[in-house]
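Subject: two folds for Thursday's group meeting

Dear M.,

Sorry for the delay on this. The cluster queue was jammed most of the week, so I only got both jobs back this morning. I'm pasting them in the order they finished. Each block is the input sequence followed by the predicted structure tokens. Could you check whether the formatting survives your parser before we put anything on slides? The first protein is the one we discussed after the seminar.
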Amino acid sequence: SAGPPRCAHGRNRQRRFSLECARCAGRGQHDPLWPRRHLYQCQPQEFRDNVMEDVRFAVHYMYTDDSAVIGNVSRNNSVGFAIMYTNRLKILNNVSEGDRDHGLLLNYANSSIITGNRVVGRMQPIERWLEAGLQKGEHGVPGEEKVEASAGETARLGPEKCVFIYNANKNKFSENSFENCSIGIHFTAGSEGNAMSGNSFINNRNQVKYVGTRNLDWSVDGRGNYWSDNPAFDLDGDGIADSPYRPNDLIDRVLWTVPQAKILINSPAVDTIRWAQTQFPALLPGGVVDSHPLMKPLLKPTAQLKESKHND
């Protein structure tokens, strides 16, 4: 179809939106639509079955309570779904595929239901980071000082974080699938009060990043999450692993605080520390533990990777 794609942009508390079955495509940072794909201070609304490609944000919500984001597809964007300063949303059955920084970002977003979504990462050209001119705190949350490429680095796994949770609480994550990201979920700034159950963490380099010291159980009513790197057994065949799962250990914390220590990752000293933690659990740091990890991932995630029906 001719003409530029239509995308919602609201700045009036009295306006209501229901945007459905639209396709929005841009050409990157210099596209005229680049900074304008967001909803701001709007009344309850629904954002359903849209496809957003090659722009900065697929969906950017701010100060927009009691709304729904359902069945949308974000592909090759900087951030898939950015939910900020917003409460009581339903974020259901959306797909983020090949976005650069975050598939889903929650910043001061509370009391929402996040169910049936899928974030899938893949290797991407390093130019996506180097040519973007990223600044610290690019998306309203703390970020790296600057983006640099290692010698010979031509590609990088993105999104860097399937999900980034910053000062967001009382949210319920269930039946989501987070796959092939550098980090499955990174949560910080007092974001310990979220419920996690029935989610699948598949082939992320780090399944979880949490540098706090509190012990957090990521299971609800005896049902935890699936972790692709969990080597546990299920001897009684109930679908729940026979031992708890911890995504992080003391070595992970050292690497997060002192990245230069990665040159020692294969040393006998590191192997000894990790062995000691398995024998003496008291040595384990505080952090996430899944007391009822699932043995199988979601067989059929609600959100599917598919070509949009709105393709021209």
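Second protein, same layout:
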Amino acid sequence: MNMSQIPHLPPKTCNIQTHKRLQRLPLLLFVAFLSFLAGISGGLASITWISPPAGPASRFTPVSRTIGDATVEMPNPLLENEMKQQMIGLFDTRKKIGSAWYKTDGRIADAVLLTDNGWAVAALPAYKAGDELSWEGVDFRGNTFSVEEVKKENIFGLVFLRFSGNQFVPVSFSDVDNMHAGSIFWAVAKQEWTLVDVSSRVSLESPSGFLVWKPHYEFVVSSTASEGQILFTLSGEFAGFVGSDGHIIPATFIPGEIQSVLTTGTFLYEALPYAGLLVEGFSAEDAKDWLFGFLVTGGVLPKSSPIQKNDLIIGIEGKPIDPLLLHYQVLRAPKTMTLTILRGKEEIDVMVSKVLVEP
């Protein structure tokens, strides 16, 4: 009798070939699992090479948004949100309708937050004492804040004001080197964002010279900018305000001014009290070095001063005079500093100290 026909044996469930395949199944599954892991690893490697690095470098990239048929340049949403937190709108309560609405001419200005306890600054050259009695601040979430203190400085007509509340998000300041012809900034007002470029540099130097601690030039932005707009770099740092006729009010002085207000309650400026002219030429008749210098022609020069009229300042703290950033070099120098001067044909180093100066 054929064994396959023996009645007491169970029915045949598979043949030998199928049985061998089943025996190899765990091994095949293991190989497939390893292939899956390899695929994931390859994918992660691709992400590492293709994706931009995480962190500030990627979140500060401008993008485009389409509104209707027009494409409007806007910052990265994360950067935009951060900058909105650093600004606060200043409104006239006399133009308020109900509890949360204002007439379209109710916005006075946009201010930039400087400290976490509510100090801010706005470009308000027409401000006069008492105006603040009808002011209130409104942030981008609609929260309102009363104005508790106001101080006006006399260099650029900026108004420093303190809002009620705390835990505000202050701005970071742009490096002064970011301001030059061709620079591009976000000009922001009324939560509207415009890309503007620095079109030119205008000299402020008069025939009689200028004070060494004040800017002797102004930058001008393109015609698309409006007076009072806040200027941010493309990476979200505060660079200044748009003033009249497109002239930029730089943020250069603001850190020192707010520090003075916080420590003394007023604006005190420590600087060198010299007036003069920016010049350039050879350091001596037989020298080959072309230098910039500040020729002292006046200012506060008592007989005891180590600097006298017709001295030529060619260096501050061991660094050459920067013809564009001279005032900034003076502001950033320590209270007692070393000046390198040419007196006649002699190059000497002298120690000088800053004094309180009037704006």
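Two things I noticed about the second structure. The chain has three domains: 73-163, 176-266, 270-357. The chain is about 20% helix and 40% strand.

Cheers,
T.
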